DNA sequence: GCAGAATGCTTTAGGCCTCATCTATTTAGG
DNA sequence: CCTAAATAGATGAGGCCTAAAGCATTCTGC
């Protein structure tokens, strides 16, 4: 699929461009998976938790008044049914609580006191892991990469109907 | 009235005082997920398949002589148990076949004729989706991003023990 | 008002993925 | 040789995730 293509005419040059897009995507995916595995494995070994649970709590930590299930679902970019399951778990463990909303269809979710404490500890460690993992990049590379990913995000979001 | 879609995903909600490294990571993750969802949904709707199955077949397509299970596992960056399950599925559907290896512990896996045909069709469509999705980036951005991701990959791989 | 559409959430079936554990085979050290 | 360690793969429990279907509530247009 990714073999080198001789570039001697317009058509094969176009194919080379195509391959570039594909290779860019594969490389992006690899980077993302590398970091994700790193974080998952540490969350698991040090805090006996998972990335989705951490992400969910991170959202709640930024919104002390709580969030509705569909807001969580949108922010985490996962389906509602999935959020239900993770919230169920965190409720059982006393880290999160459900409460009634003015809209009686909706449910409001927020961190408990225990959840706040637990999250704070994890968040500090998490940030440290990322800082260490990315320490090999120069400040310049950081900034450039950040900007280019902003462009990519913009472009990819436009491609979503 | 068409309102702009509110963007409440993980990254844009990051607080201003979050550190650079963390924001870089969250943005990378967002980009990766955006593209991944795009591809998954199209693989599903047009070819009734999934990204992991596609990825596995892509590896086999590059190695007509076949790959051993542990090679597949390494290349796909997933655990062996996982590969077993996906290969089982593809074998049932006649897209892939297992054969004996000189090392009698090992199993060699390769595409069947049917699998080659099916993959070829999907690969063309897949490449087209990616090219279209990334079409908004300039050639320059493509190249820069590709290089920076190479650096990131290098750095993140070194951080793995 | 009120019927039908839209929305918020849950449930279910099924695929992906990991870790831990198991069996079979190969390799290495004595 | 021959046993212990390493390696290849399979299996099972459990969590994440999706799409689809279902129930309750709210909104909308007549």
Task: Tell me what you see in this structure.
The structure is a homodimer of 161-residue chains. With 161 residues, chain A is mostly helical. The first copy, chain A, is 70% helix and 7% strand. The first copy, chain A, has six helices and three strands, in the order ααβααββαα. The first copy, chain A, has helices spanning 10-47, 51-62, 69-76, 80-92, 113-133, 139-158, and strands spanning 67-68, 96-100, 107-111. Chain A has a three-stranded antiparallel β-sheet. In chain A, α1 packs across α5. The longest helix of chain A is centred in the first third of the chain and has 38 residues, at 10-47. The first copy, chain A, is globular. In chain A, 24% of the residues are buried. The interface between A and B is large, with 59 and 61 residues. Chain B binds a DNA duplex (30 and 30 nucleotides) through residues 40, 44, 50-53, 68-70, 73, 78-86, 88-89, 101, 103-107.
Query: Multimeric state of these chains?
Result: homodimer
Count of beta strands of chain A: 3
Given as residue ranges, the uncertain stretches of chain A (5+ residues, pLDDT < 50) are 1-13
Cα-atom radius of gyration of chain A: 21 Å
* Topology pattern of chain A, helix = H, strand = E: HHEHHEEHH
Largest sheet of chain A: 3 strands, antiparallel
- Given the helix and strand composition of chain A, which structural class is it? mainly alpha
Task: Tell me the β content of chain A.
Answer: 5-15%
Mean pLDDT of chain A comes to 88
Spatial separation of the terminal alpha carbons of chain A: 28 Å
Instruction: Assign a percent range to the helix content of chain A.
Output: 55-70%
- The order of strands across the largest sheet of chain A is 1-3-2
Largest interface: A-B, 59 and 61 residues
Number of helical runs of chain A?
Answer: 6
What global shape of chain A is seen? globular
């Amino acid at each position: 699929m990714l073999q080198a293509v001789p570039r001697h005419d317009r058509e094969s040059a176009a194919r080379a461009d195509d391959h570039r897009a594909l290779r860019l995507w594969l490389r992006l995916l690899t980077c993302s998976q590398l970091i994700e595995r790193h974080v998952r494995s540490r969350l698991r070994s040090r805090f006996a938790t998972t990335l989705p649970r951490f992400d969910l709590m991170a959202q709640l930590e930024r919104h002390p008044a709580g969030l509705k299930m569909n807001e969580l679902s949108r922010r985490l970019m996962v389906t509602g049914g999935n959020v239900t399951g993770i919230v169920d778990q965190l409720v059982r463990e006393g880290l999160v609580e459900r409460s009634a909303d003015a809209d009686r269809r909706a449910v409001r979710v927020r961190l408990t006191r225990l959840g706040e404490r637990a999250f704070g500890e994890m968040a500090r460690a998490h940030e440290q892991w990322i800082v260490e993992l990315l320490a090999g990049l120069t400040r310049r590379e950081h900034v450039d990469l950040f900007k280019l990913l902003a462009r990519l995000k913009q472009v990819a979001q436009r491609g979503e109907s």
